[in-house]
Design goal:
about 500 residues; transport; mainly alpha; about 80% helix; Man(5)GlcNAc(2)-PP-dolichol translocation protein RFT1; two-stranded antiparallel sheet; transmembrane helix; endoplasmic reticulum; globular; about 0% strand
Length: about 500
């Protein structure tokens, strides 16, 4: 069973990465053309729409998603409880829309219309939630990858098409193309999920609609909703709310401290910097959370014929596998971090100039993107370590995590104040505040993992995930070498600089 889960997770993560890379390559090319038609102000306002949609979805479904991944009461139980996300989405979306409309929001064309479209977008995407949890329960990663890749491509074509049409017609649509793109994303995502999952439901005997659960116990409310899942979801809600503040805090702070133009610059840098995170790290995080939950769940009650000694031995073996998997992923990430730290800050502004043009490079986005290179490895390490915590922590431990995450929120806010207001570092300061935020969360996550494995009698040493000293020393030398060789191929322009940086980076990567 454990081997099957590991194999399915590995194949699923690989397939999701490949599909993400393919779909992102298409959207990346279109977005580069799109950037040449957009101003930083419009792109900054688009951040508002994205934040609104993500926040509405997050508060409606996140705790339910984590609960169904942590506890398996059967596919039908997960499908039944997922309908609470749809019910919650209506008042959550309406409340957030009214708050935004009554606030001092930016005066750009079609913003009110775009907000109403975004409200509908969130509801449509929530309709896919029953199919999503069924996909997760059955580890149908190909279906998820196909749905998300299709939705991303459709979204990009709709957004770009409207922008190009407006330019040709001399029309000013403001952020309306972004709202239409988000609506196209949610609609296509829901259609693919439902059409792909319906045949699986018929084959495996569960329904994508709420269905009575035949049980002789009192574990279900109204014979529909699993009480353990309800209680777990409720205990997770506060924690997910704090996590939202930490995850989306950068957008909130940049909206408070920065101008719309600065917000647009930060959005471009964060989107480019987060491209690797979305393509590579997110699929690994999602599949590993499911895998850790299965490997580290209590297996003593797995079979009535197993005696306690056999079940304990089986459980210990699964926990050892979880320890090995977590250690290996973190070690790969730590080695990749050295390469990013050494080469990224030099390569990032050059690549931005190629793909986005001088307008964005001259705006300061290149320097912000260079700073963001220090945040990318922290995002990766935090993602997988936090996936382990959310998959294995008890309700009491989750409450303790909520307390610490609240403390991290304060730390994030203070560091943002220092970088943005005291040191006046602008968007670069916001990136550094994010680095502080990620570092604090990583310390907590790794501390939790270490104590978890200690309680299980399984070895997990943090020094095993660290690169060797020689690689660390070389990381400190490479930036100096890149600076000293600047201009070596200057007569070839930016192409020469890219070849120079790429060659030094390749040699360093081979050494590492």
């Amino acid at each position: 069973m454990a081997e099957d889960s590991i194999s399915a997770s590995a194949k699923g993560a690989t397939f999701m990465v490949l599909l993400q890379v393919g779909s992102r390559a298409i959207t990346f090319a279109l977005n580069q053309i799109l950037l040449r038609f957009l101003s930083p102000k419009i792109l900054g306002v688009a951040v508002y729409l994205e934040l609104y949609i993500h926040s509405s979805l997050y508060f409606s479904r996140e705790s339910l998603r984590i609960a169904t991944q942590r506890r398996s009461d059967g596919v039908q139980a997960a499908v039944n409880i997922s309908y609470l996300a749809i019910v919650a989405g209506l008042p959550v979306g309406a409340l957030m829309t009214e708050l935004l409309l009554r606030s001092n929001y930016p005066n750009v064309p079609y913003l009110t219309t775009s907000l109403r479209i975004s409200q509908l977008t969130a509801v449509i995407e929530l309709l896919s939630e029953p199919a999503f949890v069924a996909v997760q329960q059955n580890m149908l990663y190909k279906t998820r990858a196909a749905a998300e890749a299709t939705a991303v491509i459709v979204k990009t074509f709709v957004t770009a098409g409207l922008v190009f049409w407006a330019q040709g017609q001399g029309q000013e649509l403001g952020v309306l193309p972004f709202a239409a793109g988000e609506l196209a994303y949610s609609t296509s995502l829901t259609i693919v999920y439902l059409t792909q999952t319906a045949p699986v439901a018929r084959l495996k005997g569960f329904s994508l609609f709420p269905k009575w659960v035949q049980t002789s116990t009192r574990q279900y409310a109204f014979s529909l909703l699993s009480k353990p899942l309800l209680y777990l979801s409720a205990s997770l809600y506060l924690q997910t709310a704090i996590k939202w503040a930490l995850t989306e805090g950068d957008k909130l702070l940049v909206g408070f401290f920065a101008t719309l133009e600065d917000q647009g610059i930060y959005a471009v840098s964060a989107n480019y910097g987060g491209l690797i995170a979305r393509m590579l790290f997110r699929p690994v995080e999602d599949s590993s959370r499911n895998l850790f939950a299965k490997l580290c769940s209590d297996t003593k009650s797995k079979s009535d014929s197993d005696d306690e000694k056999t079940a304990t031995k089986h459980n210990n073996g699964n926990v050892k596998q979880a320890s090995t998997i977590l250690r290996d992923i973190l070690r790969i990430y730590s080695i990749a971090s050295l390469i990013t730290f050494a080469v990224g800050p030099t390569a990032a502004p050059l690549l931005l100039q190629v793909v986005a043009g001088n307008k964005w490079t001259d705006s300061g986005a290149g320097e912000v993107l260079a700073t963001y290179c220090y945040c990318i490895p922290l995002l990766a390490i935090n993602g997988v370590s936090e996936a382990f915590v959310s998959a294995t922590a008890s309700p009491a431990e989750l409450q303790r995590q909520s307390f610490w995450m609240g403390a991290f929120t304060v730390g994030f806010g203070l560091s943002a104040f220092v970088f943005l207001r005291v040191l006046e570092m602008g968007a670069q300061g916001l990136v550094l505040a994010n680095c502080v935020n990620m570092a604090l969360r990583i310390v907590f996550n790794l501390s939790f993992a270490t104590h978890f494995f200690e309680r299980q009698g399984v070895e997990f040493k943090l020094r095993d995930i660290l690169p060797n000293l020689y690689a660390g020393g070389a990381t400190a030398v490479v930036p100096s070498l890149l600076a000293r060789t600047q201009g070596l191929l200057g007569r070839y322009g930016i192409l020469g600089d890219l070849v120079r940086v790429g060659a030094i980076g390749a040699v360093f990567a081979a050494f590492t």
